[in-house]
Design a protein that fits this description.
- This protein is of the alpha/beta class and about 260 residues long.
- About 40% of the residues lie in helices and about 15% in strands.
- The protein contains eleven helices and eight strands.
- A six-stranded parallel sheet has the order 5-3-6-2-7-8, with helices on both faces.
- Helix 3 crosses helix 4.
């Protein structure tokens, strides 16, 4: 047991050293200008783009309204979207929600960030290519203005995930990322982070603790109650606020509710 304890202690010290190294890098100033406008071939499951008047799109409008209601007590400007496991529809939900919010008549500026640096999906569903993204900004000091994408939807900007890093959890736990979140919060009306499933890796918990709250996507008739409870426990341990749930059917990606208010 002594050797195991020492090994765990050493691993924790090495991780802390990597985070401190990231924090000591020169701070980058952000202008937040999406300089790249790209042609996109958006996935048909993004119904808020292809059929904004459909019943499914109306469900996303209801979700948008519920989120606005949450902000009457304390503003919810920066949110994390996750799930308990893979293939529950979280990324499709995040994109549809972002587009629905961008379509709001109040002309709110929306930023959708692909923070799933291990298994990025946002650019694939939007049918666009990117040269740099979140990981490159945090790891290599890349210019955020060169990473931001304008896909031709008014009021919506995309920040891709970037190259797959070897240390995504450390990047999200760094002071540089904390500063980036604060800057994004000041620039945009709403920021939506799409993250990996909470049970798979620690990323969602680390990020969720730095945002105004977490929305968990649950697939109907698939995700077991015990799995959801375990995901809730992990978020609570990370000190991330759970805003509520979105129930989806993976075939149609319909959000049914987000009625649990905390």
């Amino acid at each position: 047991m002594g050797k195991i304890t020492e090994a765990l202690k050493k691993a924790a010290q090495e991780r802390l050293a990597r985070i401190e190294k990231l924090d000591n890098r020169e701070e980058v100033k952000f202008e937040f200008i999406a300089k790249k406008q790209v042609d996109s071939k958006i996935d048909p499951r993004i119904v808020t783009f292809h059929d904004p008047k459909s019943s499914v799109s109306e469900q996303y409008k209801m979700l948008r309204t519920n989120l606005a209601a949450l902000g009457t007590k304390k503003p919810v400007k920066v949110m994390t979207i996750t799930s308990s496991t893979h293939s529950e529809g979280k990324t499709i939900t995040a994109i549809n929600l972002a587009i629905s919010m961008a379509h709001d008549l109040n002309n709110k500026n929306i930023l959708l960030v692909d923070a799933d640096m291990r298994r990025a999906r946002i650019t694939r569903y939007l049918g666009v290519a990117s040269e740099s993204g979140l990981s490159d900004i945090l790891n290599d000091g890349a210019n955020i203005d060169q990473a931001l994408l304008n896909i031709g939807i008014n009021n919506l900007t995309i920040l891709p995930s970037g190259k797959i890093p070897h240390n995504p959890a450390e990047l999200l736990g760094s002071g540089k990322f904390k500063n980036l979140v604060a800057a994004l919060k000041n620039k945009y009306d709403y920021v939506i982070f799409d993250t990996p499933p909470i049970i798979s890796v620690t990323d969602a918990g680390i990020l969720g603790a730095q945002t105004d709250g977490v929305i968990m996507v649950i697939q109907a008739n698939r995700t077991q109650k015990g799995v959801v409870k375990h995901a809730e426990t992990l978020l609570r341990q990370a000190e991330a606020k759970l805003l509520g749930y979105i129930l989806t059917n993976i075939q149609y990606h319909i959000p049914a509710y987000i009625y649990r208010y905390l």
